[in-house]
Amino acid sequence: MRFISNIDEKLAEDIGLALGAAGLIVLIAGGMIYGVIPEIRSWALVLMFLGVVSLAGFTFFARDLIASFFQTRQGRYGINTVGLVIIFTLSIIILNFFSSNWNFRVDLTSTDQFTLSPQTKQALANLSEDVEAYGFFVPEDPALITAERLMNEYVLETENLSYTMVDPETEPSQAKRYQVDRSGQIVFAGASGQISRTNNITEQSLTASLLRATGANLKTVCFTTGHGERSILGSTDLGLRLAAQALERELYIVRDFSFSSSNGIPEECSAIIVVGPERDLIVDDTVDEEARIREYLGRGGNAFFLLTPTSPSSWARLLHEAGVETGGGTIVDPASYAHPDKTTPQIRVEGYLPGHPVTDPLIEQSLVTFFPLTTRVAPLPESQRTPGASIVPLIFTSDRSWLETNSSSLDNPTYDALDISRGENAIATAVQFPAANEIGQQITGRIFVIGNSAFAGNLFFHSLGNGDLFINTVNWLTTKEDLISIRPKLSSTRLLILSQREADWLLYSSVGLLPFMSALMGFWVWWRRR
User: What residues have CB less than 8 Å from 240, skipping those under 6 apart?
Assistant: First the structure.
């Protein structure tokens, strides 16, 4: 201390200023390293400590200079400035602390582009096991930003999901482990060992893959074969490949089966789907397909029948027992049809019955559906229905439609005395009926019948709301209508249309008025302080 006290006052000030400058530089550098390079944060803390020590040396050696400086007007202003900087810095630190621990955001986009659907949030909230997600993207992949944004939304909703970005070119062993052969895939690995992957970077596909990795909510839908039905493997216009792929994205296992090769309807089928049968059900000494379907429905099974005006009578007879009348001709609707074919009724919002899980989403989104060559599907009178069954027609043509009985006049249909059912015609009907399962427990079976099969084919599946109707129906049949019915969010272009006067005002006010006001305020401050 005696040595320090004997140091020349000028030299002490120089040492203090040097320590202050060095301490400030070292402190700032340490803070930047701590925030930017997490791997060497311990060394950054050492630098920050040395910076604080240097600043302490500055306050000791230059204490007289500091005291004299604070007695001046510039010193008082300096104290105010430093105080404001400290308060601002502390406010930022506190704000960051609370924002990192309590997440709250607001999506101001018109279509909620950056908000997960309620169904996805519910699925994440119910996630009971840890799931690891790996995004395999090369840095230049344009889908990388979308994938990171979506996965960050998922991670914020649950602590049971973690997400890691992997470059398949620099980490080929990781890519080989999860059988990833190209960039743009996301893999979900559940704690139970199940793995699912997707290269479709949408919320619908990601949620489906996530739940598939947990092994939960997987139901099987079975398409019948052997009667000329449309095939789930068919890639032509008449095939059902797109419908099968859509069901798989909705967490279903999709398969087909034949009555001739199966001993009845497979036990794992949550619902059977019959699409456009061209031949009658087989009833002979070797197999009774009608009896097998009755047995399946009798124990609470679910069935989706997509018929046509030419469907064989055995299918109509089977549905007649369920309380539904089908067939009789082809619907012609001159008031609402897909031009130029009047035998393709086009159904708008007013044609859907509200209050049902199948049609409510169509009404909410104002979706239009159309059905080439469709027939009537209507409930039987109350006296001919199964006691306790609920039979509700859901989709209707316009009040100018009729059932054309003459198939040879469909090219130029006109109403005549031979035609029937002039007015509104139901083309889809939902049935709920009491049943008993294998242990005698009372349950409810479900049937949905629609007088058209073309709307679900590859040619029309993605047209307007046809695919939505098909998926909503299967979800209702398997009691999954509230689980995962996520539709892609629509991106809307929002334009600001300005007149020439408004555009001129924006230009002149931004390049002239605002700088002038800033200069005027600066002049006023200078005038007050001079």
Answer: 223, 230, 231, 232, 234, 275, 456, 457, 458
- CB atoms near residue 509 (< 10 Å): 12
- By residue count, the chain amounts to 530
- Report the distance separating Cα 78 and Cα 72, nearest Å: 10
Q: Which residues contact 410 (CB under 8 A, 6 or more apart)?
A: 330, 332, 343, 373, 404
Helix or strand run (H / E) with residue 11: helix 9-36
Backbone angles phi, psi at 339, to 5 degrees: -55, 140
Instruction: For residue 177, give the 3-state DSSP assignment.
Output: helix
State the pLDDT at residue 457: 95
Task: Give pLDDT, residue 493.
Answer: 55
Q: Is residue 269 a contact partner of residue 221, using CB atoms and an 8 Å limit?
A: yes
β-partners of residue 132 are 162, 189
In the numeric block, the tokens 């890519």 are attached to 175
Closest by CA position to 326, among listed 291, 369, 278, 376: 376
Distances (CA, A) of 211 to 122, 135, 251, 372, 439: 12, 17, 8, 36, 30
- Amino acid 104: pLDDT: 65
Q: Are strands 195-198 and 252-258 parallel, antiparallel or unpaired?
A: unpaired
C-beta separation of 180 from 133 below 8 A: no
What is the phi-psi region of residue 228: left when phi exceeds 0, alpha when psi lies from -120 to 50, beta otherwise?
A: left
d(CA 188, CA 180): 12
Amino acid, single-letter form, for residue 208: A
- Separation CA 155–CA 121 (nearest Å): 11
The model's pTM is: 0.62
Q: Write the CA distances from 92 to 95, 98, 175, 240, 396, integer angstroms.
A: 5, 10, 41, 57, 60
- Which parts of the chain have pLDDT scores under 70? 1-8, 70, 75, 97, 100-105, 108-113, 216-217, 481-498, 530
Give dist(CA 403, CA 333) in Å, integer.
9
Q: Structure tokens of 308? A: 């046509």
**Domain boundary assignment for the chain:** 2-101, 118-198, 221-477, 495-525
In angstroms, rounded to a whole number, what is the distance separating the alpha carbons of residues 444 and 434?
A: 5
| Residue 39: per-residue pLDDT | 73
Helix, strand, coil percent values for the chain (each to nearest 5): 40, 20, 40
Q: How many whole angstroms separate alpha carbon 205 and alpha carbon 197?
A: 9
Measured between alpha carbons, how far is 239 from 233 in angstroms, rounded to an integer? Answer: 7
Q: Cβ distance 431 to 324 under 8 Å? A: yes
Query: Tokens 């272009």 correspond to what residue?
Result: 493
> Could you tell me which residues come within 8 angstroms of residue 110 by beta carbon, excluding any fewer than 6 positions away?
492, 494
* Phi and psi torsions of 206, nearest 5°: -65, -45
Taking Cα atoms as reference points, which of 249, 177, 170, 230 lies closest to residue 457?
230
In terms of CATH, what superfamily is 118-198? Glutaredoxin (3.40.30.10)
370 CA to centre of own chain:
25
CA-to-CA distance for 239 and 448, rounded, in angstroms? 20
CATH domain 221-477 topology: Rossmann fold (3.40.50)
